[in-house]
Amino acid sequence: GMTGSGKTHSMAGMHLRTASELFGDGFESFDFEFEIQISAYELVGKKCYDLLAGSTAEGKPEVFLRVGEDGNTHVRGGTELGAGSPSELQQLLALASARRETAATGSNATSSRSHAVYHLRMPNGGSLMMIDLAGNEGSAETLGHDKELMGESAEINASLMAVNSCLRARATGASHVPYRDSALTRVLRDSFTDVS
Description:
With 196 residues, this protein is an alpha+beta fold. The protein has 5 helices and 9 strands. Strands 1, 2, 3, 4, 5, 8 and 9 form a 7-stranded antiparallel beta sheet that branches. Strands 6-7 form a two-stranded antiparallel sheet. Helix 1 runs antiparallel to helix 2. The longest helix has 26 residues, at 147-172.
């Protein structure tokens, strides 16, 4: 969606719902420890930053995307924290969301300037990945941008086009899915391919 259309606001509601759904009713009465592991990072252009680590004088620590032996893209050097209740999970998701890059644009006073990835790992080995995409920006939304914001807008639009290309390739049954075209599509690789 376009920048300023409410994607991040909707994601906040999804975070609340996800936390309550994953733990379920009566999780307190489980006779075993139930803890969900969470990592969160943002993709800003070609770089990746940890949203759960404490900030340093230089800002958020950079983390790195690497292809693992399983063929999927993994984050190396990132923080992973455990949540043992819905409220703990909600707090961690809110903390990560609050640390995202934002800037004022023509459409929004606090426009997201990154794609945020929230990766939850369940005790049974399952996982859930939620992505809060930065909005695409047309020429009208970029009129007042300085050179830095223009560059960010171009990178955001390019990564969103890469997602579109991957979705189109999957929908048409193409033999090649171009998931290597951006950091975002590399993170989403297992969603675009039959690798599990």
